[in-house]
Amino acid sequence: xxxxxLFLSSLTExxxxxxxxxxxxxxxxxxxxxxxxxxxEEDDVVIIYNRVPKTASTSFTNIAxxxxxxxxxxxxxxxxxxxxxxxxxxxxxxxxxxxxxWKEMKPGFYHGHISYLDFAKFGVKKxxxxxNVIRDPIERLVSYYYFLRFGDDYRPGLRRRKQxxxx
Length: 167
Description:
membrane, disulfide bond, Heparan sulfate 2-O-sulfotransferase 1
């Protein structure tokens, strides 16, 4: 019974999310007629770079900013509340709608510390491309240790909450 409840709860949640996406789409229409600006296939691209801490994500993002400027991509930083990578259902709906319908920001490269989001769950046909960089777990832990102990060169004056003793 509990498993059936969870399944039905999940189905209800998805149905509500799809309904909210449709409502948002209707608000963006004039007299119920959708005014789409059609984009070429190559311009209708969205890349989401889900940054994993201590995997050279800052270096990779800096390269992306340089390349995107040269290749006429729009770069957007995704800043989640309190750096929580998991979004509420309402925020997921808003995010999916913004990413898929913001034609002025396409082609786009979004980056930030966010969890994977299944766009198909919200009825989206043209899903974004997800990319990621991974690192050997031990090397990542060593990097994190030195990061907490000494900070970084990128923002040397920043005092971090978890920053350790330098001795």
